[in-house]
Design goal:
The chain has two domains: about 260 residues, Nucleotidyltransferase, domain 5 (2-Layer Sandwich), CATH 3.30.420.590; about 70 residues, no CATH class. β9 and β10 form a beta hairpin. It is of the alpha+beta class. It is globular. Belongs to the LytR/CpsA/Psr (LCP) family. Keywords: Membrane, Transmembrane, Transmembrane helix.
């Protein structure tokens, strides 16, 4: 009797993973997608969910049931690959708004300068990708929500190991590079072992395990796709260029997953479940699939434009209050919410720290920033 119950539980877990995979492949089409089983969800999931719900004051289950627009914060951490096992940073941050009409991906630059609410004095000025490092996923969600004054209904936290596994499971992808660059994931620069060479306008690339003897390849495996999306220093558009390459990879993964069965074998699902944490339940996922199915055909992507700022030798991105208000207006419009002022200029209480005059000027200028 117990064995039969155990078998049924295993089947339910596999069904949950399969359902979630199909939904996201059809609806969002991004590689940080929401494969989850309850065993892989953070032990504090229910606490995180209640905190998020308390923060935005929305009955998310009711919104989904009625087919109202919802928001999901996708966080990609720099762990789970390249032998990294620490808490990591959320180097990829996308706020997704989903309605019956469309899906919109808004990329938040990882270097966006903020103060962490409640930790202003201890941490001073920080990059938004480090909020997770200092705190946890719930605090990261609430910081982004407060910064933009936009409710965040759900989150999904995916590490880099997930990207490699997805691309490898697909048998590789072809991506046309928007620029020529050389990159080693070992050094994060254009030298070292495991060296890749990508060429503008071409899907072919070269790779040398020893950094010297190159071979030509016509399709990216998981490691190559990860290298392609991670490079930042050689891109003249910095993080904006990197998010563009991430979206190119997303598009190709979407094209290669028109048949979800390619990803629905038990071995793959078991391997990727450890790479994801989310507060989206199976029941909610089923509702999303029903209510927002048509939105999969209309996916839009954009990135927040910011200005550069050097503080103590560290490069940050600054979003002026004027431009931040535009982002808030856009997101609240997507969610069919009333107009409201954007959130605190630095997310936390800027009065608790010393804000440099140059930063103050950038924060409150009405001029459009340059990319």
């Amino acid at each position: 009797m117990n064995e039969n119950r155990s078998d049924r539980n295993k089947k339910r877990s596999r069904v949950k993973i399969t359902i979630i995979s199909i939904i996201v492949l059809m609806l969002v089409g991004v590689f940080w997608f929401l494969h989850s089983v309850y065993k892989s969800v953070d032990n504090n999931m229910s606490q995180s969910y209640s905190q998020i719900k308390e923060t935005n004051g929305r009955d998310t289950s009711k919104l989904v049931k009625e087919g109202k627009p919802i928001s999901i914060l996708l966080l990609g951490t720099d762990t789970g690959a390249l032998k990294r096992t620490d808490n990591g940073r959320t180097d990829t941050m996308m706020l997704i708004t989903i309605s019956k009409k469309n899906v919109k991906l808004t990329s938040i630059p990882r270097d966006t300068i903020v103060t962490i609410p409640g930790m202003e004095k201890e941490t001073d000025l920080q990059k938004i990708n480090s909020v997770y490092t200092f705190t946890n996923v719930s605090k990261t969600v609430s910081t982004v929500s407060k910064y933009l004054n936009v409710p965040i209904d759900y989150y999904a936290l995916v590490n880099m190991g997930g990207l490699e596994k997805i691309v490898n499971q697909l048998g590789g992808i072809k991506v046309k590079s928007p620029l020529t660059f050389t990159f080693s994931p070992d050094t994060a620069h254009s030298y070292g072992k495991n060296l890749y060479k990508f060429y503008k306008g071409k899907t072919t690339f070269k790779y040398a395990k020893d950094g010297v003897h190159f071979k030509t390849y016509h399709k990216m495996n998981g490691a190559a796709a990860l290298a392609f999306t991670r490079m930042r220093y050689e891109d003249p558009r910095s993080d904006y260029g990197r998010t563009q390459r991430q979206r190119l990879v997303i598009e190709q993964i979407l094209k290669h997953t028109k048949d979800p069965r390619m990803l629905l074998n038990q071995k793959f699902m078991k391997s990727i479940s450890s790479n994801v944490r989310t507060n989206i339940s199976t029941k909610v996922m089923l509702s999303i699939a029903t209510e927002y199915f048509s939105a999969r055909k209309h996916v839009k992507a954009t990135s927040i434009a910011e200005s550069n700022f050097d503080y103590n030798g560290v490069d940050y991105e600054v979003l002026s209050n004027h431009e931040k208000q535009k982002v808030t207006n856009n997101l609240r419009s997507e969610l069919e919410l009333k107009h409201a002022k954007t959130g605190p200029i630095l997310a936390g209480d800027s009065k608790k720290i010393v804000v440099p005059d140059e930063l103050e000027e950038l924060l409150y200028t009405s001029a459009s920033p340059t990319n």
